[in-house]
Protein backbone atom coordinates (compact mmCIF):
# COMPACT_ATOMS: atom_id res chain seq x y z
CA UNK A 1 0.00 0.00 0.00
CA UNK A 2 2.77 2.43 0.93
CA UNK A 3 4.77 1.56 -2.20
CA UNK A 4 1.76 2.32 -4.39
CA UNK A 5 1.29 5.69 -2.73
CA UNK A 6 5.00 6.59 -3.13
CA UNK A 7 4.88 5.67 -6.83
CA UNK A 8 1.90 7.94 -7.29
CA UNK A 9 -0.55 5.08 -7.79
CA UNK A 10 -3.90 5.05 -5.96
CA UNK A 11 -4.34 2.50 -3.17
CA UNK A 12 -6.11 -0.79 -3.93
CA UNK A 13 -9.27 0.23 -2.05
CA UNK A 14 -9.55 3.43 -4.09
CA UNK A 15 -9.14 1.38 -7.27
CA UNK A 16 -11.96 -0.92 -6.26
CA UNK A 17 -14.21 2.05 -5.55
CA UNK A 18 -13.75 3.24 -9.12
CA UNK A 19 -15.37 0.06 -10.53
CA UNK A 20 -18.80 1.07 -11.86
CA UNK A 21 -21.73 -0.04 -9.71
CA UNK A 22 -23.50 -1.42 -12.78
CA UNK A 23 -20.73 -4.00 -13.22
CA UNK A 24 -21.14 -5.20 -9.64
CA UNK A 25 -24.89 -5.42 -10.06
CA UNK A 26 -24.59 -7.39 -13.28
CA UNK A 27 -22.21 -9.84 -11.66
CA UNK A 28 -24.49 -10.24 -8.66
CA UNK A 29 -27.52 -10.79 -10.90
CA UNK A 30 -25.68 -13.41 -12.95
CA UNK A 31 -24.75 -15.39 -9.84
CA UNK A 32 -28.16 -14.97 -8.24
CA UNK A 33 -30.25 -15.73 -11.35
CA UNK A 34 -29.93 -19.57 -11.38
CA UNK A 35 -31.10 -19.91 -7.79
CA UNK A 36 -33.88 -17.37 -8.27
CA UNK A 37 -35.16 -19.08 -11.41
CA UNK A 38 -35.16 -22.54 -9.83
CA UNK A 39 -36.75 -21.14 -6.67
CA UNK A 40 -39.58 -19.61 -8.69
CA UNK A 41 -40.12 -22.77 -10.73
CA UNK A 42 -40.05 -25.35 -7.95
CA UNK A 43 -41.17 -23.34 -4.88
CA UNK A 44 -43.13 -20.20 -5.77
CA UNK A 45 -44.85 -21.74 -8.79
CA UNK A 46 -46.29 -24.79 -7.00
CA UNK A 47 -47.40 -22.68 -4.03
CA UNK A 48 -49.27 -20.24 -6.27
CA UNK A 49 -50.75 -23.11 -8.26
CA UNK A 50 -51.92 -24.83 -5.07
CA UNK A 51 -53.63 -21.64 -3.91
CA UNK A 52 -55.43 -21.34 -7.25
CA UNK A 53 -56.49 -25.01 -7.33
CA UNK A 54 -57.70 -24.79 -3.73
CA UNK A 55 -60.40 -22.38 -4.94
CA UNK A 56 -61.76 -24.92 -7.42
CA UNK A 57 -63.45 -28.31 -7.52
CA UNK A 58 -60.98 -30.42 -9.51
CA UNK A 59 -60.71 -34.22 -9.78
CA UNK A 60 -58.14 -34.63 -12.60
CA UNK A 61 -60.87 -35.82 -15.00
CA UNK A 62 -63.35 -33.02 -15.36
CA UNK A 63 -62.49 -29.38 -15.84
CA UNK A 64 -61.86 -27.37 -12.70
CA UNK A 65 -64.87 -25.40 -11.45
CA UNK A 66 -64.38 -22.28 -9.37
CA UNK A 67 -65.99 -22.67 -5.91
CA UNK A 68 -64.29 -19.84 -4.05
CA UNK A 69 -63.64 -20.52 -0.37
CA UNK A 70 -66.01 -23.48 -0.23
CA UNK A 71 -63.16 -25.99 0.23
CA UNK A 72 -61.89 -24.07 3.23
CA UNK A 73 -65.39 -23.86 4.65
CA UNK A 74 -65.84 -27.62 4.36
CA UNK A 75 -62.39 -28.16 5.81
CA UNK A 76 -62.97 -26.25 9.03
CA UNK A 77 -66.73 -26.59 9.44
CA UNK A 78 -67.65 -30.09 8.25
CA UNK A 79 -64.50 -32.21 8.14
CA UNK A 80 -64.21 -33.80 11.58
CA UNK A 81 -61.33 -36.02 10.48
CA UNK A 82 -59.31 -32.96 9.50
CA UNK A 83 -59.82 -31.48 12.95
CA UNK A 84 -58.52 -34.74 14.45
CA UNK A 85 -55.55 -34.58 12.09
CA UNK A 86 -54.94 -30.95 13.04
CA UNK A 87 -54.97 -31.80 16.74
CA UNK A 88 -52.65 -34.79 16.24
CA UNK A 89 -50.24 -32.72 14.15
CA UNK A 90 -50.10 -29.91 16.71
CA UNK A 91 -49.55 -32.36 19.58
CA UNK A 92 -46.89 -34.15 17.56
CA UNK A 93 -45.12 -30.92 16.60
CA UNK A 94 -45.32 -29.36 20.08
CA UNK A 95 -43.71 -32.42 21.70
CA UNK A 96 -41.42 -33.95 19.06
CA UNK A 97 -40.17 -30.60 17.75
CA UNK A 98 -38.90 -28.98 20.97
CA UNK A 99 -37.76 -32.31 22.42
CA UNK A 100 -35.68 -33.21 19.38
CA UNK A 101 -34.37 -29.66 19.12
CA UNK A 102 -33.25 -29.49 22.75
CA UNK A 103 -31.87 -33.03 22.73
CA UNK A 104 -29.78 -32.27 19.64
CA UNK A 105 -28.30 -29.12 21.17
CA UNK A 106 -27.66 -30.66 24.59
CA UNK A 107 -25.89 -33.67 23.09
CA UNK A 108 -23.79 -31.44 20.83
CA UNK A 109 -22.90 -29.17 23.76
CA UNK A 110 -22.00 -32.07 26.05
CA UNK A 111 -19.90 -33.86 23.43
CA UNK A 112 -18.14 -30.73 22.20
CA UNK A 113 -14.45 -31.00 22.84
CA UNK A 114 -14.40 -34.76 23.40
CA UNK A 115 -11.67 -36.76 21.74
CA UNK A 116 -13.97 -39.10 19.82
CA UNK A 117 -16.63 -36.57 18.93
CA UNK A 118 -16.44 -37.55 15.23
CA UNK A 119 -17.63 -41.07 16.00
CA UNK A 120 -20.45 -39.70 18.14
CA UNK A 121 -21.43 -37.29 15.36
CA UNK A 122 -21.62 -40.16 12.89
CA UNK A 123 -23.71 -42.24 15.29
CA UNK A 124 -26.20 -39.42 15.85
CA UNK A 125 -26.33 -38.35 12.19
CA UNK A 126 -26.82 -41.84 10.71
CA UNK A 127 -30.58 -42.12 11.50
CA UNK A 128 -31.34 -38.83 9.72
CA UNK A 129 -29.99 -40.11 6.37
CA UNK A 130 -32.13 -43.24 6.60
CA UNK A 131 -35.70 -43.20 5.35
CA UNK A 132 -38.55 -43.03 7.82
CA UNK A 133 -39.94 -46.28 6.46
CA UNK A 134 -36.73 -48.16 7.26
CA UNK A 135 -36.51 -46.65 10.73
CA UNK A 136 -40.14 -47.51 11.44
CA UNK A 137 -39.45 -51.13 10.52
CA UNK A 138 -36.51 -51.16 12.93
CA UNK A 139 -38.54 -49.64 15.73
CA UNK A 140 -41.44 -51.99 14.98
CA UNK A 141 -39.14 -54.80 16.11
CA UNK A 142 -38.93 -53.09 19.51
CA UNK A 143 -42.66 -52.28 19.68
CA UNK A 144 -43.98 -55.42 18.04
CA UNK A 145 -47.55 -56.07 19.26
CA UNK A 146 -46.83 -59.74 20.05
CA UNK A 147 -44.91 -61.23 22.94
CA UNK A 148 -41.79 -61.58 20.79
CA UNK A 149 -41.27 -57.84 20.55
CA UNK A 150 -38.31 -56.69 22.61
CA UNK A 151 -40.28 -54.38 24.90
CA UNK A 152 -43.27 -56.70 25.35
CA UNK A 153 -40.92 -59.62 25.98
CA UNK A 154 -39.07 -57.65 28.65
CA UNK A 155 -42.25 -56.46 30.35
CA UNK A 156 -43.81 -59.94 30.36
CA UNK A 157 -40.66 -61.63 31.69
CA UNK A 158 -40.41 -58.94 34.37
CA UNK A 159 -43.99 -59.62 35.46
CA UNK A 160 -45.09 -56.04 34.75
CA UNK A 161 -47.75 -57.10 32.23
CA UNK A 162 -49.46 -60.41 31.54
CA UNK A 163 -50.44 -59.89 27.90
CA UNK A 164 -48.67 -58.07 25.05
CA UNK A 165 -49.39 -54.38 24.48
CA UNK A 166 -50.66 -53.62 20.99
CA UNK A 167 -48.29 -50.70 20.44
CA UNK A 168 -49.23 -50.02 16.79
CA UNK A 169 -52.94 -50.85 17.14
CA UNK A 170 -53.93 -49.22 20.41
CA UNK A 171 -55.09 -45.60 19.83
CA UNK A 172 -53.50 -44.53 23.11
CA UNK A 173 -49.99 -45.70 22.18
CA UNK A 174 -49.70 -44.97 18.43
CA UNK A 175 -48.95 -41.25 18.73
CA UNK A 176 -46.54 -41.45 21.72
CA UNK A 177 -44.45 -44.17 20.04
CA UNK A 178 -44.43 -42.21 16.75
CA UNK A 179 -43.24 -39.13 18.64
CA UNK A 180 -40.42 -41.17 20.18
CA UNK A 181 -39.31 -42.37 16.73
CA UNK A 182 -39.44 -38.84 15.34
CA UNK A 183 -37.35 -37.46 18.19
CA UNK A 184 -34.71 -40.12 17.65
CA UNK A 185 -34.59 -39.48 13.89
CA UNK A 186 -34.61 -35.69 14.12
CA UNK A 187 -31.54 -35.51 16.34
CA UNK A 188 -29.12 -36.27 13.50
CA UNK A 189 -29.20 -33.15 11.34
CA UNK A 190 -29.68 -30.76 14.25
CA UNK A 191 -26.83 -32.40 16.17
CA UNK A 192 -24.46 -31.97 13.22
CA UNK A 193 -25.43 -28.32 12.71
CA UNK A 194 -25.01 -27.51 16.39
CA UNK A 195 -21.64 -29.25 16.48
CA UNK A 196 -20.48 -27.04 13.60
CA UNK A 197 -21.88 -23.95 15.34
CA UNK A 198 -20.04 -24.74 18.55
CA UNK A 199 -16.78 -25.02 16.63
CA UNK A 200 -17.30 -21.56 15.11
CA UNK A 201 -17.53 -19.82 18.48
CA UNK A 202 -14.30 -17.91 19.06
CA UNK A 203 -12.30 -19.39 21.93
CA UNK A 204 -10.98 -15.92 22.81
CA UNK A 205 -14.47 -15.01 24.02
CA UNK A 206 -14.36 -17.76 26.63
CA UNK A 207 -10.93 -16.62 27.78
CA UNK A 208 -12.10 -13.02 28.08
CA UNK A 209 -15.24 -14.13 29.92
CA UNK A 210 -13.13 -16.11 32.40
CA UNK A 211 -11.11 -12.99 33.11
CA UNK A 212 -14.35 -11.02 33.63
CA UNK A 213 -15.60 -13.51 36.18
CA UNK A 214 -17.57 -16.25 34.38
CA UNK A 215 -16.80 -19.53 36.12
CA UNK A 216 -19.27 -22.24 35.02
CA UNK A 217 -20.06 -23.73 31.62
CA UNK A 218 -23.70 -22.77 32.07
CA UNK A 219 -22.76 -19.09 32.33
CA UNK A 220 -20.62 -19.45 29.20
CA UNK A 221 -23.54 -21.14 27.46
CA UNK A 222 -25.97 -18.34 28.32
CA UNK A 223 -23.76 -15.32 27.77
CA UNK A 224 -21.48 -16.46 24.94
CA UNK A 225 -22.44 -19.72 23.21
CA UNK A 226 -26.14 -19.12 22.56
CA UNK A 227 -25.75 -15.52 21.26
CA UNK A 228 -22.94 -16.62 18.95
CA UNK A 229 -24.94 -19.58 17.59
CA UNK A 230 -28.13 -17.81 16.53
CA UNK A 231 -27.74 -18.71 12.81
CA UNK A 232 -27.34 -22.40 13.63
CA UNK A 233 -30.17 -22.26 16.16
CA UNK A 234 -32.45 -20.70 13.55
CA UNK A 235 -31.50 -23.28 10.93
CA UNK A 236 -32.18 -26.11 13.37
CA UNK A 237 -35.52 -24.59 14.37
CA UNK A 238 -36.72 -24.28 10.76
CA UNK A 239 -35.72 -27.88 10.00
CA UNK A 240 -37.45 -29.09 13.14
CA UNK A 241 -40.66 -27.24 12.28
CA UNK A 242 -40.73 -28.62 8.75
CA UNK A 243 -40.04 -32.15 9.94
CA UNK A 244 -42.62 -32.07 12.73
CA UNK A 245 -45.48 -30.65 10.69
CA UNK A 246 -44.68 -32.79 7.66
CA UNK A 247 -44.66 -36.14 9.46
CA UNK A 248 -46.30 -38.90 7.44
CA UNK A 249 -44.17 -41.90 6.51
CA UNK A 250 -43.17 -42.75 10.08
CA UNK A 251 -46.74 -43.14 11.34
CA UNK A 252 -47.97 -44.87 8.18
CA UNK A 253 -45.13 -47.40 8.27
CA UNK A 254 -45.62 -48.03 11.98
CA UNK A 255 -49.40 -48.10 12.32
CA UNK A 256 -50.79 -48.15 8.76
CA UNK A 257 -53.25 -45.82 7.11
CA UNK A 258 -55.76 -44.96 8.38
CA UNK A 259 -54.73 -45.60 11.96
CA UNK A 260 -57.29 -47.00 14.43
CA UNK A 261 -59.75 -44.26 15.37
CA UNK A 262 -57.48 -41.88 13.41
CA UNK A 263 -55.25 -41.76 16.48
CA UNK A 264 -52.16 -41.12 14.34
CA UNK A 265 -53.81 -39.28 11.48
CA UNK A 266 -51.89 -36.12 10.52
CA UNK A 267 -52.48 -33.25 8.13
CA UNK A 268 -50.10 -34.71 5.53
CA UNK A 269 -51.86 -38.08 5.78
CA UNK A 270 -55.20 -36.30 5.24
CA UNK A 271 -53.71 -34.49 2.26
CA UNK A 272 -52.39 -37.75 0.81
CA UNK A 273 -55.79 -39.39 1.25
CA UNK A 274 -57.66 -36.74 -0.73
CA UNK A 275 -54.94 -36.17 -3.34
CA UNK A 276 -53.80 -39.70 -4.27
CA UNK A 277 -56.64 -41.95 -3.12
CA UNK A 278 -59.79 -39.88 -3.64
CA UNK A 279 -58.24 -37.61 -6.33
CA UNK A 280 -60.00 -34.50 -5.01
CA UNK A 281 -57.22 -32.13 -5.90
CA UNK A 282 -59.08 -28.95 -5.04
CA UNK A 283 -59.77 -30.09 -1.50
CA UNK A 284 -56.25 -31.53 -1.14
CA UNK A 285 -54.78 -28.21 -2.28
CA UNK A 286 -56.78 -26.42 0.41
CA UNK A 287 -55.25 -28.74 3.01
CA UNK A 288 -51.79 -28.04 1.58
CA UNK A 289 -52.35 -24.28 1.75
CA UNK A 290 -53.44 -24.50 5.40
CA UNK A 291 -50.32 -26.53 6.23
CA UNK A 292 -48.15 -24.04 4.34
CA UNK A 293 -49.61 -21.08 6.24
CA UNK A 294 -49.11 -22.83 9.59
CA UNK A 295 -45.45 -23.68 8.94
CA UNK A 296 -44.78 -20.24 7.45
CA UNK A 297 -46.23 -18.35 10.42
CA UNK A 298 -44.42 -20.47 12.99
CA UNK A 299 -41.20 -20.24 10.97
CA UNK A 300 -41.46 -16.45 10.88
CA UNK A 301 -42.01 -16.43 14.63
CA UNK A 302 -38.76 -18.32 15.21
CA UNK A 303 -36.95 -16.05 12.74
CA UNK A 304 -38.12 -13.08 14.81
CA UNK A 305 -37.21 -14.82 18.07
CA UNK A 306 -33.68 -15.72 16.92
CA UNK A 307 -33.01 -12.56 14.94
CA UNK A 308 -29.64 -10.84 15.30
Q: Care to describe what's here?
A:
- The chain is built from 15 helices and 2 strands.
- It is 72% helix and 1% strand.
- It is flat, with a radius of gyration of 26 Å.
- It has helices at residues 2-6, 12-17, 21-53, 70-77, 80-111, 117-125, 132-142, 150-157, 171-200, 203-212, 217-228, 230-245, 249-255, 267-277, 281-305, and strands spanning 56-57, 65-66.
- The protein has a two-stranded antiparallel sheet.
- A hairpin with a 7-residue loop joins strand 1 (56-57) and strand 2 (65-66).
- Helix 3 packs across helix 15 (281-305) and helix 14 (267-277) packs antiparallel against helix 15 (281-305).
- By secondary structure, it is an all-alpha fold.
- The protein folds into 2 domains: 1-53, no CATH class; 71-305, MetI-like fold, CATH 1.10.3720.10.
- Residues 1-10 have low confidence and may be disordered.
Would you identify the CATH H-level superfamily of the largest domain?
A: MetI-like
β-strand amount: under 5%
Q: What's the order of the H and E elements?
A: HHHEEHHHHHHHHHHHH
Shape: flat
**Whole-number tally of structural domains:** 2
Class of secondary structure makeup = mainly alpha
End-to-end C-alpha gap: 35 Å
The third-level CATH topology of the largest domain is: MetI-like fold
Which CATH class of the largest domain applies here?
A: Mainly Alpha
Query: Uncertain segments of ≥5 residues (pLDDT<50)?
Result: 1-10
The number of helical elements comes to 15
**Order of strands across the biggest sheet?**
1-2
Strand segment tally: 2
Main beta sheet, described? 2 strands, antiparallel
CATH architecture of the largest domain: Orthogonal Bundle
Amino acid sequence: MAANQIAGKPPIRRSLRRIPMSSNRKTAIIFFAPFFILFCIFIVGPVVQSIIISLTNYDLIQEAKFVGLNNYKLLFMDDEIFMIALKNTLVFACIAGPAGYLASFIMAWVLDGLKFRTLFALAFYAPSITSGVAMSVVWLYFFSPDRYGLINNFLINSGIISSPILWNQDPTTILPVSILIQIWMSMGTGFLVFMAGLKNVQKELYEAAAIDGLKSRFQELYYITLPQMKPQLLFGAINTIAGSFGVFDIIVSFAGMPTPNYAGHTIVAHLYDYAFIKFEMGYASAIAVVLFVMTFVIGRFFMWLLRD
